[in-house]
Amino acid sequence: VPLLLTPGPLTTSESTRRALRSDHGSRDPAFLELVGRVRTALTRLIDPTDAWTCVPMQGSGTFAVEAMLTTLLPHVGAVLVPTNGAYGDRLAAIVRRSGRAVHVSRFDEVRPVDPDVVDAELASRPGVTHVAMVYSETTTGLVNPLAEVAAVAARRGVRLLVDAMSAFGALPLDGREPIDGVAASSNKCLEGVPGLGFVLARRSALEGCAGRASTVSLDLHEQSRRLDQDGQFRFTPPTHVMAALDAAIAQHAAEGGVAARGARYARNRDVLVDGLRDLGLAPLLDASVQGPIIVTVRAPSHPAWSFSAFYDALLDRGFAIYPGKLTVEETFRVGVIGQVFEADVRRFLVAVRDVLNVMGIAPLGPA
Ligand SMILES: Cc1ncc(COP(=O)(O)O)c(C=O)c1O
Questions:
Q1: Counting atoms of ligand 1 from 1, which one is nearest the CA of 65?
Q2: pLDDT over 90 (residue 327)
Q3: DSSP code of 58?
């Protein structure tokens, strides 16, 4: 199998995959203990007190985002969604579909959300009760200024809900005011396997949400109530996925937690960006906004370029990359998260050089 240089599912460790081999019953004391351990460990990553709770949600990351928005948002008032990519747009789509009012504040895909613009939007829209935003916008790999937007929201007296899918576990994040919810999943920077999302919710915000959720299965309040009551999920839990996440969290801690994991990914990114530049391939984003998760690369403007030929040739050499997601220009993406280390990135760069040669595209000259 290839090394996955993608935003997830990711290449996982041997010990994480080993954890998948046990069949747990959903009511086994050992499994309930494991669920409790995972919930506590995830909560501790953003808050040392008991002011927050972790509510795991079956499904992919979007299910957790939808559970967060459609449980924590009131039915009156409106949400402001500053967006600079597909995942920000998805937040707005989820809110709209649930029948709640949403205002979209659109930013260029290559620029961060501007806290001053958010401030002005909030000033002119007194009906807005919440801001919902993406921390690491995986569409491009850009990191949005979460702390600055949180400060603006606090000043304006509105609450903040965060899609931290590709940030959680590798980028700094804490349960500061006025954040009420953070959604993420097992298969990104925590390096678990796919099949589970989770929401970290401020208890004081979640407590008032009984009966508010728009759907039965994504009712975060009910899911939380049941888990707190007897440790069980309401519906069939992804037992193997939970066990793998438990193992992955232990490895995250052993590596040195958020700071160390973020540093490894940042090193991967730096080696990747420098190496691609040497091969004539330019990153889309300015270095000041480029996050340590995934790098968007401009496709070479060369008549012999073909993404699918490039992709296939890299796959033959053991690497899976990712297509671009921009409409404005042709790009491809390379993820640097998962069990990926500097030596892997250097091997990848050798493969890229080789493939460009074979395609008749090299040498392009430094970008
Ligand atoms: C920022 C962000 N939000 C949401 C999602 C959706 O996650 P999933 O595809 O697991 O539903 C992703 C997936 O890459 C993401 O990067």
A1: 4
A2: no
A3: E
